[in-house]
């Protein structure tokens, strides 16, 4: 057996080390005023549900004033609430209720870019080239005889050029939509303003932050700007290991987060943050150190196929990286940017997910029962691992991706910016069903900003409440059991047991409990021990296909 040992203290200061964090996409969670858009009072009204589910913290995607060019990630004002979602008083009430219920609160912060309606960018548009107002963003003259060509060949993550030309002939940088101009983080005013924002929300009781595009802030803006060879999209493996890319994962970004850590440590307990950093695993460690953010998302686990060897490699790498950083690993299977894992796992291995979305989920036809079975097995595996689990709203209901959204209902800029080559992320953002019936299945008294599919109510909280075989009750039981079982952060692989098999993952946690996952279509021997929890029915001494069990060992 081999062991991985991490820190073990779960006191108030280190609440995040083995926490389960529930991600709320506010516009799609609960609508209190019936306008079809989820809001902060709606979130507050459902906090008892989340406390009863058994999570430790709530993470809110952006709720700031926004033109919604990118689902709220185009921020007009970093220190206010979008009037469609509520007020600052509503936010304070939500935090107070969360804390009363024993829940921590994390919020999204979007430091790479603002909205083009942000006060600063509007000032920059009115200002002269070379002015102080323009220095807060990235403005450059174009190439060509009359400056008619973009300054570089950089492309937007949403498709198309990463530069937009203004009437005065100058261009501004946006690594995402044109409505999201990139900040110039070499500018001291930008750095000071974000310190102000971190303190603003921390003073209101926020316990932590999820940092959007954490790897994109620092850029090499020395003249002349470097071309990179136009590439539509990238993977972490495409990035250089030495931090020399012009705008992704540059070494200088860590100066910014070391500065943020000083702000976090002004509070008791210190505020924590988690980096969204799509970088090589060898480069992710730096973001998660105690001197910087504290955690970084591990997307290798999310992207791994449900193969024992691939998952084990992702687990071992994440645990080793977290140990090296003095942090804990993070585990996530779904979020607001990816196809829900109950659907991903129902598609054939090696599938083209984008082609499936563009076929409105018809080619191939999704095996929903198979996908849900595999998703629940993966979830129990995830929740047994040392570190923090991040759960996306609705996954506890086993919600599938809504792949059949009509083209005229799509709102993700990915759809238009890609010229229809990518359908986008709307399918995982459809408002939640809370009740079996009603105009929006309990989401609110009116309609919904994205259409809910027929039959959505049969997947609702009301429909699953108290049904022992429902995903909701499995999540509740798993989270309660996990809370009782957790001790330190050690994991030990059980490679030398008689029931070992190459398509079975089997590891032990301190306190005498084990997790065993059968990642095959055939039954495998069930190790001895008291059955605590199973993702699917278990009878006799066989571990069924695509099933995870938690066991208490006989010697415990």
UniProtKB/TrEMBL annotation:
**Sorted alphabetically, which SMART domains does this protein's record hold?**
Aamy (SM00642)
Q: Which UniProt keywords apply?
A: Hydrolase
- Keyword Cytoplasm belongs to the record: no
Entry annotated with the keyword Hydrolase = yes
What positions does the domain Glycosyl hydrolase family 13 catalytic occupy? 23-429
Q: In Gene Ontology terms, what is one molecular function of this protein?
A: hydrolase activity
- List the InterPro entries: GH, GH13_cat_dom, O16G_dom_2
SUPFAM superfamilies annotated for this entry? (Trans)glycosidases
Q: Name one Pfam family in it.
A: Alpha-amylase
Cross-referenced PANTHER family: ALPHA-AMYLASE FAMILY MEMBER (PTHR10357), NEUTRAL AND BASIC AMINO ACID TRANSPORT PROTEIN RBAT (PTHR10357:SF179)
What family is this protein classified in?
Answer: Belongs to the glycosyl hydrolase 13 family.
Task: Report the protein name in the record.
Answer: Alpha-amylase family glycosyl hydrolase
């Amino acid at each position: 057996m081999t062991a991985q040992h991490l820190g073990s203290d779960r006191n108030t200061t280190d609440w995040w080390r083995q926490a389960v964090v529930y991600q709320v996409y506010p516009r799609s969670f609960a609508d209190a005023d019936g306008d079809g858009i989820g809001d902060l009072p709606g979130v507050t009204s459902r906090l008892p549900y989340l406390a009863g589910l058994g999570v430790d913290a709530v993470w809110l995607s952006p709720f700031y004033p926004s033109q919604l060019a990118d689902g709220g990630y185009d921020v007009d004002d970093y220190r206010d609430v979008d009037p469609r979602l509520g007020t600052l008083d509503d936010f304070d009430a939500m935090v107070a209720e969360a804390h009363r219920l024993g829940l921590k609160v994390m919020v999204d912060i979007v430091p790479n870019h603002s909205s083009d309606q942000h006060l600063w960018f509007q000032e920059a548009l009115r200002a002269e080239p070379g002015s102080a107002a323009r220095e807060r963003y990235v403005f450059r003259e174009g190439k060509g005889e009359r400056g008619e060509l973009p300054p570089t060949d950089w492309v937007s993550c949403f498709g198309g050029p990463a530069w937009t030309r203004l009437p005065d002939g100058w261009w501004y940088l946006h690594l995402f939509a044109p409505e999201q101009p990139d900040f110039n983080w070499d500018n001291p005013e930008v750095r000071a303003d974000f310190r102000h924002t971190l303190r603003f929300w921390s003073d209101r009781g926020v316990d932590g932050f999820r940092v959007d595009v954490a790897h994109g802030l620092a850029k090499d803006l020395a003249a002349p700007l470097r071309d990179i060879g136009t590439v539509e999209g990238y993977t972490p493996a495409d990035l250089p290991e030495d931090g020399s890319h012009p705008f992704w994962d540059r070494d200088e970004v860590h100066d910014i987060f070391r500065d943020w850590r000083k702000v976090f440590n002004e509070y008791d307990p210190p505020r924590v943050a988690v980096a969204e950093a799509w970088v090589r695993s060898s480069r992710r460690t730096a973001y998660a150190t105690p001197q910087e953010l504290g955690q970084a998302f591990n997307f290798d686990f999310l992207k791994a196929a449900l193969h024992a060897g691939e998952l084990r490699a992702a687990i071992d790498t994440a645990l080793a990286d977290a140990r090296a950083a003095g942090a804990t690993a993070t585990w996530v299977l779904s979020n607001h940017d990816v196809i829900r894992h109950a659907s991903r796992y129902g598609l054939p291995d090696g599938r083209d997910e984008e082609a499936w979305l563009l076929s409105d989920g018809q080619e191939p036809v999704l095996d929903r029962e198979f996908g849900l079975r595999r998703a629940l097995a993966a979830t129990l595996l995830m929740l047994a691992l040392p570190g923090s689990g991040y759960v996306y709203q609705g996954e506890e209901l086993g919600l599938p991706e809504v792949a059949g959204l009509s083209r005229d209902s799509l709102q993700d800029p990915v759809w238009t910016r890609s010229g229809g080559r990518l359908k986008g992320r709307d399918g995982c953002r459809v408002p939640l069903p809370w009740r079996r019936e009603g105009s929006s299945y309990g989401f609110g008294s009116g309609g919904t900003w994205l259409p809910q599919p027929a039959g959505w109510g049969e997947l609702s909280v009301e429909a699953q409440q108290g049904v022992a075989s429902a995903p909701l009750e499995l999540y509740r039981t798993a989270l309660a059991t996990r809370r009782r079982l957790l001790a330190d952060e050690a994991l030990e692989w059980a490679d030398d047991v008689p029931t070992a098999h190459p398509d079975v993952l089997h590891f032990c946690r301190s306190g005498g409990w084990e997790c065993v996952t059968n990642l095959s279509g055939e039954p495998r021997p069930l190790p001895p021990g008291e059955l605590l929890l199973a993702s699917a029915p278990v009878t006799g001494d066989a571990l069924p296909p695509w099933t995870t069990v938690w066991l208490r060992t006989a010697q415990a």
